[in-house]
Amino acid sequence: MYRESSGDGFGGFFLVLVILSLLLYFVPSIVASKRDHPNKGAIYILNILAGWTFIGWVGALVWAMMNSGSQQSAQPVIHYSSANSESGGSIAEKIKEFKELLDSGTITQSEFDALKAKAINGD
């Protein structure tokens, strides 16, 4: 009795290998998409056209991993020293100013809390 092998074992392995290879190939594009990189379109094109070369793939991956200027928060650093407390308004005015910065989204809640504590403690 001779059974004809349908090759399903090898075919399934080959299919899994192809899928994993494609996922690995498109890792730079996936990273750029997940990070919502502003140049993700260019990264996709680089990945598709030059990703087959090791240098092109690594270049696309490095570019996708880089922080761009738009992703970095441009929050100002506010320093209040004793000179500021002598020359500028009351504690209530400072806290009001901090609250305005918080409401506008310029600073986070934790930054607001830290600034408020500094103003109250006179740091």
TrEMBL record:
Keyword set, alphabetical order: Membrane, Transmembrane, Transmembrane helix
Which Pfam families has this protein been placed in? Imm_superinfect, SHOCT
Residue ranges occupied by any SHOCT domain in the UniProt entry:
93-118
What top-level branch of life does the organism fall under? Answer: Bacteria
Q: Which InterPro entries match?
A: Phage_imm, SHOCT
Transmembrane ranges?
12-32, 44-66
Know the name of this protein?
SHOCT domain-containing protein
Q: Which organism is it from?
A: Pleomorphomonas carboxyditropha
